[in-house]
Write a structure and sequence with these properties.
The protein has 458 residues and is mainly alpha-helical. It has 2 domains: 221 residues, no CATH class; 203 residues. 70% of the residues lie in helices and 0% in strands. The protein is globular and about 70 Å long. The chain starts with 10 loop residues before the first helix and ends with a helix. It comes from Hymenobacter ginsengisoli.
Length: 458
């Protein structure tokens, strides 16, 4: 049996099966959803192409750079982070060791199978439709498509290093350089050097991937791959093991969506700051408030905190009922998350935005007490059972829609109302409203206790 047999018998079958599983699933409901999403992205692509055909109209020419930055940043983030959060999508050998296929061919096969996902297929379809609708401006969606492919290669490169346990390999720096080049390119979409920079941005991940295929692919075998058991066990002296019990429970269930939300916040604020520095105006004021104020942690997790730490709260309700311990638990878990969120906003606003935006820093301390109050209301009176494994995909389903809408509506009013004599009473009313749930908890109110017990799904 040859050691380096071709993939002629395996690759078409594996790629065809993967493509059918993504585009035409066996389940009728999943198939309908996949086709609906693909059709929707095709319509978005047609709309994007129509906009490019009419970009010389008044108003659209000025807004086009911001639209391109927003779209490309969204595609870059969705392409990269979906492979790392809520959990790392590991790279594994697609063919067993006994198959007569070399390690390099296994890496190539793993990359091609990894590339075929519904999300990438949707984004690629939308960009291809835009190129067909606007052939004279095909370079704009064409470079976005190159960004999508380059980000996919970059993601695979980093995850291959993780699978081989080579976090200190020099090629990791080359992958980080590729990411920096992508961020630079999408922040200057209409600069004179945008096209050569886009070519470099598109080619560098492939060159790094080729280097990894040459140097590291021979180690892509069971002999060199780290054991999966060692990767899943937590050492006794790790940081998580030294944390208090409530933080262990909280981070194991909600750490992934919190990290994902923080990453989105940092990326959006960095891109917005670079855009405002170079163009003198906001990238997207309607989304800036959501990234600037400490909203992400509440909208994903902390508006339903007691359901997230269900076992701790159920134990407290069984033993003593509603007591001050529940309030201390809420403060110990939510306050550090909010403070980290505010600290990131302060650092990025001071470092990247002009001095004219510094007065907005006063909104951060003004927004914290009301958001804590609204989060307590949602956690007590609008609690709903949380999924056993909370991730970014289901995080919004684990929080009451009414609690999220109320929190976002308050943040909108606080950010966009320019009058401080309106902002201060609004924040004061939202903060003082916490007196009622605090009073009911300290009284060990029976109705609240039963409502919370049912709400967290105990």
């Amino acid at each position: 049996m040859a050691d380096y047999a071709t993939l002629g018998h395996y690759l078409p079958y594996l790629l065809g099966r993967r493509l059918r599983a993504v585009v035409w699933p066996a389940d009728g409901g999943e198939r309908a959803v996949a086709l609906f999403l693909l059709g929707l992205m095709a319509l978005y692509g047609a709309g994007f192409g129509f906009m490019l055909n009419h970009q010389n109209k008044a108003g659209l020419a000025e807004a086009l750079p911001g639209i391109l930055i927003g779209l490309n940043a969204t595609w870059l983030v969705s392409t990269l982070l979906v492979d790392f959060f809520p959990t790392l999508r590991s790279v594994t050998r697609p063919l067993p060791e006994l198959f007569p296929v070399s390690e390099r061919q296994n890496v190539v096969t793993a990359f091609l199978l990894d590339l075929i996902t519904l999300r990438r297929f949707m984004l690629g379809l939308g960009l291809l439709v835009a190129m067909l609708v606007a052939p004279r401006h095909a370079a704009i969606p064409g470079f976005s498509l190159l960004l999508l492919l380059g980000a996919s290669v970059l993601s695979f490169n980093v995850r291959l290093l993780a699978a081989l346990g080579r976090w200190r390999h020099p090629l990791l720096a080359a992958n980080l350089l590729s990411l920096g080049l992508m961020a630079w390119w999408l922040s200057v979409p209409l600069a004179p050097y945008a096209q050569p920079l886009g070519v470099g941005m598109a080619l560098l991940p492939w060159l790094v991937g080729a280097a990894q295929l040459h140097w590291l692919a021979p180690y892509f075998s069971a002999r060199y791959l780290p054991a999966t058991v060692a990767a899943t066990t937590t050492p006794a002296g790790s940081t998580l093991a030294r944390l208090p019990l409530e933080w262990k429970v909280y981070l194991r269930r909600a750490g992934a969506p919190l990290l994902y939300g923080l990453a989105l916040k940092i990326i959006f604020l960095v891109v917005s700051g670079l855009y405002m520095t170079s163009n003198g105006k906001d990238l997207n004021p309607g989304l800036f408030f959501f990234a600037f104020l400490p909203l992400i942690g509440f909208s994903y997790v902390n508006n339903n905190l007691f359901a997230v730490v269900q076992n701790l709260v159920a134990n407290e309700l069984l033993r003593l009922g509603c007591t001050a311990h529940l309030l201390r638990l809420y403060a110990r878990l939510v306050l550090p998350v909010v403070l980290v969120d505010c600290l990131v906003s302060v650092v990025l606003l001071v470092a990247l935005f002009p001095a004219s935006r510094l007065p907005q820093l006063w909104l951060l301390p003004l927004s914290v007490p009301p958001l804590l109050s609204l989060g307590l209301w949602g956690s007590l009176y609008l609690a709903k059972p949380a999924a056993e494994k909370i991730n970014f995909a289901n995080s919004r389903k684990n929080v009451s829609t009414a609690a999220n809408l109320l929190t976002i509506a308050f943040a909108l009013a606080l950010f966009f109302v320019p009058l401080w004599w309106v902002r201060l009473p609004l924040a004061a009313v939202a903060t003082v409203s916490a007196v009622w749930p605090l009073r009911q908890v300290l009284r060990n109110d029976g109705e609240l206790r039963r409502k919370l017990w049912r709400g967290i799904g105990a």
